[in-house]
Design goal:
With 314 residues, the chain is of the alpha/beta class. It has one domain: P-loop containing nucleotide triphosphate hydrolases (Rossmann fold), CATH 3.40.50.300. It is 36% helix and 24% strand. The chain contains 11 helices and 12 strands. The strands form 2 sheets. Strands 6-7-8-3-9-10-12-11 form an 8-stranded mixed β-sheet, with helices on both faces. It has a 4-stranded antiparallel β-sheet with strand order 2-1-4-5, with helices on one face. Strand 11 and strand 12 form a beta hairpin. The longest helix is centred in the middle third of the chain and has 18 residues. The radius of gyration is 21 Å and the shape is globular.
């Protein structure tokens, strides 16, 4: 894909998210900026507590932005919106949650759970049209229309996550925030759910922000990867570029943690442990810099030169 032809769907600019006030405040996200192009899957990767979900929830306007702004289709969606704009954003941007058990109302039938968005936005002509829509979407996610009369507790984790996907897809969104949608599922089910997300992307031209802590999973689904550590972006690159040339030490540590299927090689593998002591920012200030080939790395001017030499030789 040529960068010049890509259309920016969502843009995050200098985003800060702070929780609490005064001395008890905690900055979860610090000066984060990146664009998501229409039709792509951008993965946001980092360990627990790095701010990934906080960014996803800021896009959904669950977490308010303390500084910076979020734009969707060129329109600012962070901060106060008119009721009409608010409803438009809710319909176009949907979320698939990490825990399929906690995100579904246990007291509601699957039919009602999937129909809730249709009811709220009146996205159907009549009752027959509503039934047709939910029966189609339940089949699309690999379940059956007879499942619609059941309750979430009657399903396995993988089936519940399929219901969560159906609930998002039935709204006909353009953009989906998938917050670790497979981390709570059995390994055997994970590939099925990823394939389902890929299928919907191809059929409906969806754009995804895929949040994960495991780089091996995102390699399969992503066009580009953003690596985040303690609320700051460390590296951004296209998937194969990042795996071929991981430049930031934190990215290298994440890649070294990916399990190798061969038990003998896995046993003798050396893990690379990241520490901030590897950097000296006392005299030079770090920044996120594009070193070429759409590859951005966070570092001081001397580190950036070193990264360029590693990537391009010299």
């Amino acid at each position: 894909m040529e960068t010049t032809k890509k259309e920016v769907l969502l843009s995050i600019q200098n985003l800060d998210v702070v929780f609490g006030r005064g001395k008890k405040s905690f900055k979860a996200v610090s000066d984060v900026s990146f664009d998501i192009y229409k039709g792509e899957t951008l993965s946001l990767v980092g360990e627990s507590g790095s701010g990934k979900t906080t960014i996803g929830r800021a896009i959904m306007r669950i977490n308010p932005c303390s500084a910076g702004a979020i734009y969707y289709n060129g329109e600012k969606i962070s901060g106060k919106l008119s009721r009409k704009a608010d409803r438009e954003v809710i319909r176009k941007i949907q979320m698939i949650f990490q825990d399929p058990a906690a995100s579904l109302n246990e007291r509601a039938t699957i039919e009602y759970i999937i129909s809730e968005g249709l009811y709220n936005f009146h996205l159907y002509k009549d009752e027959r049209d509503r039934i047709a829509k939910i029966e189609k979407v339940i089949r699309d996610v690999g379940l059956l229309p007879e499942h619609l009369t059941r309750y979430p507790h009657e399903f396995s984790g993988g089936q519940r996550q399929r219901v969560g996907i159906a609930r998002s897809i039935v709204m006909e969104p353009e953009f989906i925030v998938a917050d670790e949608p497979i981390s709570a599922l059995d390994v055997s089910i994970r590939a099925q759910v990823l394939n389902l997300l890929k299928k919907f992307q191809n059929e409906r031209g969806l754009t995804y922000l895929f949040i994960a802590h495991d780089l091996s999973i995102v390699r399969f689904i992503s066009d580009r990867i953003v690596v985040i550590y303690k609320g700051r972006i460390m590296e951004i690159a296209e998937t194969e570029e990042l795996f071929s040339y991981p430049l930031h030490p934190y990215t290298k540590s994440l890649i070294s943690a990916i399990p190798i299927p061969d038990p003998i090689i896995e046993k003798s593998k050396r893990l690379f442990v990241y520490s901030t002591d590897l950097h000296d920012y006392s005299t030079e200030q770090p920044a996120l810099v594009d070193i070429g080939n759409g590859h951005m790395v966070y570092g001081s001017p001397s580190e950036i030169e070193k990264y360029k030499a590693i990537r391009f030789g010299g």
